[in-house]
Write a structure and sequence with these properties.
Elements: H1 3-19, E1 31-32, H2 35-45, E2 52-56, H3 64-70, E3 73-78, H4 81-91, E4 100-104, E5 117-121, H5 127-135, E6 143-149, H6 150-157, H7 167-175, E7 176-184, E8 189-190, E9 197-204, H8 213-223, H9 231-235, H10 238-255, H11 265-276, H12 288-299
Length: 306
């Protein structure tokens, strides 16, 4: 049988086998079917022959088999046992089949193994928690090239003043360099999703900035409760004032210091905001340096957010 006819028969068999699987929309199963885009995503990851690659949601393995040709090892994390079995069958007996290691389960609950890079067409409903699991993972990985819903991707790369600039933008950019790589249309997936997609490159900052991330995120949460309101207005909330006072007493206790019963939370916060010139600023226009300076101002005056 001519080589071209053999290849055509093989592709048809794979397509029929994949089409026999009932995709689960609640698991965000949308298989990337365009081979040109698959190759473009893998090229952006610049996978080395010595790399261990983490893939989340491999589905039927369209990206997996290509990455296994380039990498030393592929760790594929798949929630759906049917898809995991399909991927295992697809590579069984192939030259690169020994490179595959499948973890069946929820990636958000799993302990991630060592990996050099992460390439994934993610289930979109886990985008935010997975990004932060990734960025707080140690040891550091080199790069991640990830597919997201278009709006989520644009939030990741948004700058101060942009409509989509938010807590997600700030927290991600604190810990990593983030770049938008390409837009992906709905028709490149089977079945087509209801939203457009984008691919983003995330490179963690190593070493990370020398700050307590929980403390940082606590401040950012307050300022972005209503990002169009002034910082002073967001801090005026009763819940925020109670949180700051509780934290003050906790930190005094941990340091073995006496609690100043005359400590007036509202007066202290307003005074610091006025001194720093932050009271009338709004979260949507504040950049990284603004938040770093504001956090330092509060912390150095005994106000904490954890």
């Amino acid at each position: 049988m001519p080589k071209e006819r053999i290849a055509k028969k093989s592709r048809t068999h794979e397509a029929v086998r994949a089409e026999g699987i009932q995709f689960k929309h609640d698991l965000g199963q949308h298989i990337l079917k365009n081979p040109l885009i698959v190759n473009a995503i893998i090229d952006k990851a610049a996978i080395k022959p010595t790399d261990t690659v983490l893939e989340v949601g491999p589905g039927t393995g369209n990206m997996s088999v290509k990455m296994m040709e380039k990498a030393k090892k592929l760790v594929a994390c798949e929630l759906d046992p049917r898809m995991a079995a399909e991927l295992q069958k697809r590579v069984q007996g192939t030259a690169d089949g020994h490179k595959l290691h499948i973890i069946v389960g929820d990636v958000l609950k799993a302990d991630l193994p060592y990996f050099d890079c992460c390439v994934a067409n993610l289930p979109y409903q886990i985008s935010s928690p997975f990004v932060f699991k990734l960025l707080l993972h140690r040891p550091f990985f080199r790069v991640a090239v990830l597919m997201f819903q278009r709006e989520f991707a644009m939030r990741l790369v948004a700058k101060p003043g942009d409509k989509l600039y938010c807590r997600l933008s700030l927290n991600t950019q604190l810990l990593a360099r983030v770049d938008h790589l390409m837009k992906i249309g709905k028709n490149n997936f089977r079945p087509p999703p209801k939203v457009e997609s984008s691919v983003v490159r995330i490179e963690p900052k190593n070493p990370p900035p020398p700050i307590n991330f929980q403390e940082w995120d606590g401040l950012v949460r307050v300022v972005f409760v209503r990002k169009n309101k002034t910082v002073a207005a967001n801090f005026a909330s009763k819940a925020v004032m109670e949180m700051i006072e509780t934290n003050y007493r906790t930190h005094c206790s941990m340091k073995g210091e006496m609690v100043d019963e005359g400590f007036d939370v509202k007066q202290k916060v307003n005074k610091l905001l006025e001194e720093g010139g932050y009271g009338e600023k709004r979260g949507r226009t504040m950049d990284m340096d603004d938040f770093l300076n504001l956090l330092n101002l509060f912390n150095s005056n005994g106000i904490h957010f954890t």
